[in-house]
Design goal:
alpha+beta, Aminopeptidase, 2 domains, ten-stranded mixed sheet, 37% helix, transferase, Acyl_CoA_acyltransferase, transferase activity
């Protein structure tokens, strides 16, 4: 039987045990990660013999008086996490319960293990195919390097000739301040200070658990690029980055990504570039030899007609005034 649990009803020890035992044991679904990015998160849980055997995190809130579900910032994928004991058809049951509970769902993203089941449900639910880029690092570095495109190899050589300094750091403030100065103005609608504070808190928690890696490049003592990675369960997630004009011209992020690949070559790690749906950025990640991986995002609008009309008008005004904005990786 599947139950909806409010935040205070969730047994986080049993929750994390279920995530760890699932095929897609990813850091975003662990209780301590969710506590930072979605305080008060709820869940659907299937139990057996006192243990959680299937779970679905629900970072839900209230907007305009209606239950609202969306993907938290800094969280690439969530979805349904199943163990070998999970009941047949459990994903379909959880989708039915989720769309019944939340009147509005904005791009709730499922993990790749959900993909096969969700493909069968596209006629029933508004499921949008999305793609990320994965690069398996199980080969020696020279073999991985061979799969770089010609342009990426040339840009890496340019970065090496640019005499950039590259160093690891435990201080995220330069990255945040750099993003505010050079990228934030390009983000449609801007970035709230609470989103930056969430990143600070998340970085602190990840540092405590030894799963964060932050690398900067500098020129003349000034930061021109920075990249944050989360490392968990043999996956390296490219979580957040920033580069100014000098960093882009000097290919600072190319240098950092190549260093990550070099450091972990010949291991069981996979680099997840967390590709956004922006062709130019996806092309950049593909140039490292990364392959496409499909997953789904759920949308749902069960709002009353008058609320839909008001929301559509607001979105039309929003797009009119912010149409010139350029989305970046956040």
């Amino acid at each position: 039987m599947i139950r909806y649990l409010r935040h205070e009803q969730i047994d986080k020890t049993r929750w994390d045990a279920c995530i760890t035992a699932s095929a897609d044991n990813m850091v975003y679904a662990l209780s301590w990660f969710l506590d930072v990015v979605a305080p008060g998160w709820q869940a659907l849980v299937e139990e057996q013999a006192g243990q959680y055997i299937t779970v679905m995190p629900l970072p839900g809130t209230q907007k305009m008086g209606f239950p609202y579900l969306s993907q938290p910032y800094h969280t690439h994928q969530l979805g349904v996490f199943t163990t070998h004991q999970s009941s047949p058809g459990v994903r379909e049951k959880m989708l039915e319960l989720t769309t019944g509970r939340y009147k509005f769902i904005h791009s709730y993203r499922f993990n790749k293990s959900d993909t096969g089941s969700l493909e069968q449900l596209q006629d029933t639910y508004d499921l949008v195919a999305r793609y990320t880029r994965y690069l398996k690092l199980d080969k020696p570095y020279p073999e991985l390097y061979k799969n770089y495109t010609r342009d990426r190899k040339m840009n890496l050589k340019r970065a090496q000739r640019a005499n950039l300094s590259m160093f690891e750091s435990d201080d995220i403030e330069p990255l945040i301040e750099h993003f505010k100065k050079h990228i934030e103005h390009k983000v449609v609608g801007g970035v709230a200070e609470s989103t930056y504070q969430m990143l600070r808190d998340l970085f602190g928690v990840m540092q405590e658990r030894g799963v964060a890696q932050l690398i900067y490049t500098t020129s003349g003592g000034e930061v021109n690029a920075g990249c944050l990675f989360f490392k968990y369960n043999n996956v390296i997630s490219y979580a957040f980055n920033s580069a100014d004009e000098e960093g882009r011209v000097a290919n600072g992020r190319t240098l950092v990504l190549d260093e990550i690949i070099r450091q972990h070559a010949g291991t069981s790690y996979t680099l997840d570039f967390e590709s956004p749906m922006i062709e130019q950025i996806e092309h950049f990640y593909a140039s490292f030899g990364a392959h496409r991986v499909k997953y789904f995002a759920l949308r749902h609008n069960g709002l009353p007609l008058y609320v839909k009309i008001i929301r559509n008008l607001r979105m039309k005004v929003y797009r009119t005034f912010f149409a010139s904005g350029v989305a970046e990786e956040v």
